[in-house]
Amino acid sequence: MNSASSQESLSPWFADTLGKTLEITGFFNILDRKGFLVDQTKLGISTENIQFPAWTGIGAESLVTGGFTVSGRDLTLECRLFDVVQGKLLVGKRYTGKVEERKEMVVRFAQEILVALTGEKGLFDTKIAFAGKKGGSSEIYYVNFDGTEPVKLTNYHTITLSPKWSPDGKQISFLSYKDGAPDLHVMDLNRRTTRKILSTGRLNLPATWSTDSKRMLVTSSKDGSEDIYILNLADSRMTRLTSDPSIDVSPTWSPTASRLLLSRTGEARPRSTSWTQPAPMSGGSPSRGLQHLTGLASPFQSHCL
Q: Could you report the per-residue pLDDT of 6-22, keeping only the tens digit for each?
């Protein structure tokens, strides 16, 4: 890796990977390098070496420069972000590690760029869980925020759906027919262990976790119609929140957990509802008042509970 040709191949890789990473956010428009007015091979990383008018002249507002050295499998990467309008350095970072860790270094600097320019950390350290279908079965996977490095979590060779992250990112809940019925399960991602949390012999759908990861909103048809329940994960005790012949799905807690939002289908016309205090998460009994939120020309309605 310390040959000249290897280092030359890494140079455009760093630029391309950082550009693609930033574009995913929707905040950045990466300029075509063919339009650059400076010799990229001679572009320095120090403020005094930057020709700022050449960058503002092509419409650039910010500029990232960088350099790296490779010794065996060891990599040192230095990156800097400049405000070309004001002609000043905004942030500079140096990363050391193995060549195989170069993408992690790029992602970390992309995070620094987003924080410097927007004040927000963004989604670079997040993962996406999804159900991947093959033939008549589906399994749970997760990937990095950019769709790379897929990891297969289940291998049940049956229908497995609806993955939901716990707030701390350490667990994923999902529905699976692996035991013959649509039961709910929770996987500990560190230990790769799975436990069944709800089995009623009827339809059960996982929804939102509580902020303390101790409870979960679920849709279950255990009592006939598809209604909303709070499931206590420690003992599988269920508290019923809705009792309606319509189909209630996709419940979500409000930020204060004092209300819930859900979708309802099966009524004569779309409408919306809300629960009022006391908050179901606090252990009280929710009132059954409904607040209409929307009038959608669709069989599904949004309800605030």
A: 566 788 899 999 999 99
Rounded CA separation 279/270 (Å) = 25
What token pair was written down for 16?
């391309």
Domains defined for the chain, CATH in brackets = 4-118 (3.40.50.10070), 127-304 (2.120.10.30)
Distance CA 283, CA 232 (A): 11
Peptide bond preceding 278 in cis form (omega within 30 of 0) = yes
The angle, 0 to 180 degrees and rounded to 10, between the axes of the packed helices 102-118 and 4-23 is 40
Start-to-end C-alpha separation, the chain: 59
Residues 217/207, Cβ–Cβ less than 8 Å: yes
User: Reduced to 3 states, what is the DSSP secondary structure of residue 205?
Assistant: strand
* Contact (CB, 8 A) for 95 and 81: no
Name the token pair of 86: 């004001």
pTM exceeds 0.70 for this model: yes
Parallel, antiparallel or unpaired: strands 127-134 and 137-144: antiparallel
Angle at 108 between CA 66 and CA 43, to 5 degrees: 10
